[in-house]
Amino acid sequence: MVSFWRPAATGVASILAGVGAGELVSSLFAQNGSPVLVVGAAVIDLVPGWLKEAVISVFGTQDKTVLIVSLALVLLIAGALAGWLESLRPPVGRILIALGGALGVLAALTRSGASVLDAVPSAVAAIVAILVLGALARMLRGTAPTRVAPSGAVSRRRFLVATGATAAGGAIAVAIGQVVSSGYRAAAAARAAFHLPKAAVAAPPIPAGASFDIAGLSPIITPNADFYRIDTALQIPGIDPSTWRLRIHGLVEDEIELSFAELLKLPLEESITTLTCVSNEVGGNLISNATWLGYPIRHLLARAKPKSNADMVLSKSQDGWTASTPIEALTDERNAILAVGMNGQPLPLEHGYPVRMVVPGLYGYVSATKWVVDLEVTRFDRATSYWTDRGWSQRGPVKLESRIDVPAAGRQVTAGTVAIAGVAWSQHVGVSAVHVQIDDGPWEQADIADAISVDTWRQWKYAWNAEKGRHTIRVRATDAKGRVQTSAVADVVPNGATGLHQISVTVS
Ligand SMILES: Nc1nc2c(c(=O)[nH]1)N[C@H]1C(S)=C(S)[C@@H](COP(=O)(O)O)O[C@H]1N2
Ligand SMILES: [Mo]
């Protein structure tokens, strides 16, 4: 039996090491990509209904535990098999693990809302398991058949210690991964069980003429899965909504503390606001638009009664990130809100669940605090924030910009009528016109889609009569106050890029 158990142990140890590495990577960088959980989710989606019901009727609410335990058993048995096959006919065992890893990657990528990052932990798990199995199998081949190892051979004891330590290390890594991501998992479960309240005030309907039907043009509302994400959080904070509290304090007459339940009871309003990152380069994609559900911050501040010398609100997230927002942007009539909903869904965890700020007209770094837990009313000469401490400007109004989405840069197009289209924005001011320039020709007026509001981007299009050759296309927007977008090139530091977006295409 020696020819089965020891090779099997190499396989089990490599699986534990691989899954441990994968779970650890997942808990740190890709919480949605836990190898065990993505495969578990795929199994749930794939098993026939009768089996699901049978499991639930036998095990009740323990059905998920049963699934995870079964998966673990399958993994360990497959590992034992892989180790045994590897000893008989290398590299068959490693190929088996590679196939298992491929299934994990596939499971990760086919989940709804998945990103490529979610596949990384499964890939890491497979690579580590393959390397470990290769090493342990080599060691096993080198062990002496006798109790006393001749020189050059590995002692049986050393092999057992190495295999045991690898297995234990893997199991410990799995355990650490579980502990590290338990907050995230709990928040994800709470979010899944949470039903967004209805809006007391619905957003005005989006005009039928607000979007053009052009392939490749950014949709007027960005689906949550495609919404850009920028933050400093290596690990997404997992907040238990039942313990979430927002404190409003500092230079106020009356301090306020608000629970999530209390926030949800307030008359929530829907609004459509485009968010932009100050790090968005000209032509970049760090801009997206969503329908938010939330409560106006100005009403809460009115209750707290800021003192007259206050000129800034320092908002703080659960993980200690801060933003300094001019107080007037939170007290004037613009729709600065504490958002709980995004496109009809609870805020996704990576976009700030359970509560974030959305402030029309300001770049995210001075306004859009995700996982917000604290608002301190203060003064610019008394406090600074995460990015203003790092050389970015105190004030960050969004600059007038425009972008060409279609045709994609460098694209080959056929001579004749070619649709050029894109988006233009000047949050809280509005866009009134867009012009397009081909090579060094005159600026031609583009059609602009109807505006949703001054706080959202606007689509534009231009029918170009394209002639053969290589051409440059430029775009330039004009805001609602008649100011023309500058062609002066400015870097994103310290308060946002300027310049005209320009692409080249070949017409044939
Ligand atoms: N807690 C927290 N909130 C944050 C940030 C952050 O790093 N931490 N980044 C800000 C920046 S720079 C931007 S541009 C927006 C991006 O929001 P999004 O990821 O939902 O698109 O969030 C803002 N809110
Ligand atoms: Mo940003």
TrEMBL record:
BP-aspect Gene Ontology terms: sulfur compound metabolic process
Family matches, as Gene3D superfamilies: 2.60.40.650, Oxidoreductase, molybdopterin-binding domain
Transmembrane segments: 66-85, 92-113, 119-138, 159-180
Pfam families named among the record's database cross-references: Big_7, Oxidored_molyb
Protein name per its UniProtKB record: Oxidoreductase
Top-level taxon: Bacteria
SUPFAM superfamilies: E set domains (SSF81296), Oxidoreductase molybdopterin-binding domain (SSF56524)
Residue ranges occupied by any Oxidoreductase molybdopterin-binding domain in the UniProt entry: 234-387
GO molecular function, one term: molybdopterin cofactor binding
Keyword annotations from UniProtKB, A to Z: Membrane, Transmembrane, Transmembrane helix
